[in-house]
Amino acid sequence: PAPMGVSELWSRGFALFPEAGAGEEEDATDGTATRGASHGTDGGERGGRPRWGSTAEFVLAAIGSAVGLGNLLRFPYMVYKHGGCAFLVPYALAVVFLGVPILAMELALGQVAQSGCVDALAAMHARAWGIGAAATAGAFLLASYYCAVLAWAWCFLAATWQPTMPWSDGRAAAFFVDDVLARWDSRDGTDSSHVRANGGANGPDGADGADGAVAAFARLGLGPMNWWLVLGLTLTWAMCFLCVKRGAESAGKAVWITVPLPYAALLVLFVKGVFHTEGAGVGVRAYLGTIDANTLGKGEAWIDAIGQIFFGLSVCCGAMPAYASNCSLRERCGTNAIRVAVANSVTSLLSGFVVFAFLGHLARVESVGVGDVAEGGWSLAFVVYPTAFATFGSPGGQIFATSFWLAILTLGVDSAFALTEAVVCAVCDRSRYCAEHRGFAAFCVCFLCWCLGLVMCTRGGYHVVDIVDAYVSRYTLTIAGLAECVFVGWVYGAERLRDETRATSGHDFMGVGSYFPVTIKYVVPAALVTMLSYQIATEARETYGGYPRWATNAFGWGLCVVAPLSLACVGLARPLDVGRKFCEGVGGAPGVFDGSRPYSTHMGVRLSDEGVGRPTRVTDGVRTLDRGEVEMGPSGI
Question: What is this structure's pTM?
Answer without folding.
Answer: 0.83
